[in-house]
Amino acid sequence: MASLDPMVIGFLVALGVGLLVGIDRERRKGEGPTRRSAGLRTFTVVSLLGAVAMTVGGELLLAVAGLGVVVFAGLSYWRARGDDPGLTTETALVLTTLLGGLAMREPAIAAGLGVIVAALLAARTTLHRFVRSVLTAEELRDLLIFAGATLVVLPLLPNKPIGPYDALNLRTVWLVIVLVMAVGALGYIAVRLVGPRYGLPLAGLASGFVSSSATIGAMGSRAARETELLRPAVAGAVLSSVATVVQLAILLAATSPAALRTLWPALALSGAAAAIYGGIFTLRAIERPISGADVEGHAFSLTAALSFAAILAVVLLAAAAAQDWLGEAGVLLAAGLAGFADAHSAAVSAASLVADGRLQPAQSTVPILTALTTNTLTKTIFAVTAGGRVFAAYVVPGLLLIAAAAWIGAFLVGAIRL
After folding, report:
1. Number of H helices, E strands in the chain
2. Residue 162: beta bridge partners?
3. Contact, 308 vs 382, CB < 8 A?
4. Global confidence as pTM
């Protein structure tokens, strides 16, 4: 089957972008003497103009064509400025010209950008209503803080171990702060969309795939600020461990199927315990109406996120110091110490040894479950420090039940023998 010439593809994409953006502008240009000058035909023509300019004269001729469109768009705006002070149509006209030129070099990117431009133009009313009526000043402030932490601070931090025992990685620690804020924001958005009784449990389950510890910290912070959300916050915190178990099973399947076959009863029982315990609190939260719960406010707590990262740094330093003092006492010690920070990395390390033939599948069970247990201790610390005694009194028994279920499952199938 003969493929289309790249030039033909470029012109087709330019034509499509012009038509797509022009359709929206045609619907909004109005009727009568006050109607806009740019519509479906104008946008299609300028997009093709950009494509032809790029083909004939390259970037220089495209720049000239773009400048010409800028001049005409400016004249159009000057003529209609009394009736409509907006610059959306004029700006879209210039951008469509440039997208037409881009289509001749990078048709996929031009097509994607064209769809985004058309979607933004079509969603004008929804976006305006969201910014003016739905988004609060506190939420805007949180959005700017999150953007600064993610797009400004995170890329500037060095990605290498520093400090005593080379235990700290500033980028990793700051990434934890970003994750805690993201988890808090996800829970906040879920609450705004479907209410706190349903939103927090759903957010906890989804956020657990990112970081169960961060989820527990964020849920605890939310419960501490708004005590009426205690039950749904507890449900979200415990349900995050369901995601931990599922993710652990997926990683083991990818690393060593033999290790997973040995460990799956323990993981299944542990996941079931998490689902049942979290489900109980979810049902209790649904059955009990939440009155006076303010769903507007801050999307996350920056103080809680910073505290969470500080606690994690202390745990990492303590684990590194213990490993240095005690020496390399085998896979069990290494897995247990690594589990304080992340159970998944420790489990993958043990499963990798099984895959390499240096460890029998049954011998990986104890190190993996030890990592899961020490990670439970870390989650317990976050539950106490972020959520307070009441939150911890509900969450910690669930965490201990989840860890105990894993060990019991391993004993029942004989993976661990006394």
Report:
1. 16, 2
2. 168
3. yes
4. 0.57
